[in-house]
Each structure stands twice: as C-alpha cells, then as structure tokens.
Design goal:
By secondary structure, this protein is mainly alpha-helical. It is built from twelve helices and five strands.
Amino acid sequence: MPKNESIVRQVQEVLKSKLRIGEQRHTAKQEGVASDGIYSWSTYQNYIAKCCAFAKWVRENHGSKTPEEARAYVDAYLQHHIDKGYSPYTQKHIACALAKLYGCSTKDFIPTQVRHRANITRSRKGKAIFSESKNREFVDFCKATGLRRHELKLLKPENLRFDETSGKYFLSGIKGKGGRLRDCPVLSQKVVAKIINTPAGENVWSKIPSRADIHSYRADYCKSIYQLHARPVAEIPERDRYYCRGELRGVIYDKNAMRIASQALGHNRISVIAGHYLYNKEVPQ
C-alpha cells in the first residue's frame, strides 16, 4: 500500500480486501475463517463508516498516518465514546467494526458497556407521526409477511406461490440481507388478494410509508410464526429447549419453532429472534 495514501484511504482498502460478497458465511464459519470476511454490503458500509470515523479521529488527535500506528489508540477511542454517553449498542458496533479492521476480537479491546434488552428503543414504541389506523391495509400486510422495507419495495405478484402440499401461500424468492433468498409464509388471505389483484410486473406497493415501524411489524410476524409451531414448554425435549439468559433468565423457547421463524424472517441464528423479535411475547406453558 503506497505510503502517501491517507489513513482513511488505507482503512478503506483494508476493509475492501475483506469483502466476500457472494460467498456463504455459514460455510466460512464451518471452516473457521468467517471472522476474516465481510459477507454483506450493508455490513461493509456500516464498518466503513465506523472505521473511517476512527481514522479521522486518530489522525486529528494523535497524528497517526497508518492503521498500524492507529491501533494503539483503539481503547482511547472507545473510552471517548463511553465518556460521551453513546449507547452500549453503538459502542459495541464501533468495537466490532474496529475488530474487523484489525482482524481480532472485541475482547482485545477495553470492555464496552453491557447491552440490555430493556434498553432497546427501536420499534418498541409507536411513532406518533405515522397513523396505523389510516394505513391499516399496509400495517396488516407487513404483519402477515414479515418483509423488510427494501423487500416490500421490490415485491411483485410474481413472488406469490401456492404450495399444493401444505395448501398455503408463500412469497417465493425474497432477496434479503447479503443477497440470501428465502420463502415467507403468508398469514392472511387479504394479503393474498392484494397481491393477486396487482397487475403482473408491477410493484405490489408503489410507495412505502417512511415513518412506518417495519421492525415492529416483523416482530409481530415472528411471534405469529413462532406460536404456530411452538410446543408447550412441558412437551419440549431437553435438546430442543432454548434457555434465555440475562433479564430473560428462566424463559424457555422451542428451538424448532425458532428455526422456522428465523428462516421466514431471513435470519440464520435463532439467538437473533430471541433477543430482537420475541420480546413481550407470552411464553407457552
């Protein structure tokens, strides 16, 4: 790497070299090399933003000209954000980005503050500017499909598929994060009718409300899918029990139902829905 390149440019080149778009993170994880790569554009863009901000800070405050020189100031940078009152989630996000930059673990840095589920504010409270009553059809559509915002924008009637075996409708070929394709069960006949009545080749939704709380609707969808497949706790074999930790200690989920719900949402890890989608759900007894 040329010595006359700015530290920001050098950081960008390091992260660019770690791009693994199109490769399977699951396969890399099995081979023990998942930590070496970045497998989605959204993650790459987030890490670029966080690491470039670090590069500018360390250049201005410590005169570092290379990522190697800047490594000694990572802890100071994290402490700076802790002292400034940044949320534990933002602190952890920065630490993860810098760990990717330096090819190490966040455990190699000073500890960030502990994250608690109860402190998550995204999609836990309604947004007053958006009227759900005036947009009832859209809200119900989201809760019955679990689609992300960009997936809703691209949805066409051609995505609807009827499964003869189960007698149910699915949204097929939905392209989620990292370009992963999945099929999503449709939970409402009204949604099916909305899609069928859309002319072929056109988008089902011509406009997506910018203030709509899409994540909370995905959470509702996740809970519905989970409850359709979850067994009463007393009937779940030990090997299929997911024991929650932290403030949810004592809560038990059905791993099989969690896997089905995770796949419908486009997530690979059941721990993601346990912490971010199944909150405030009544646990089956």
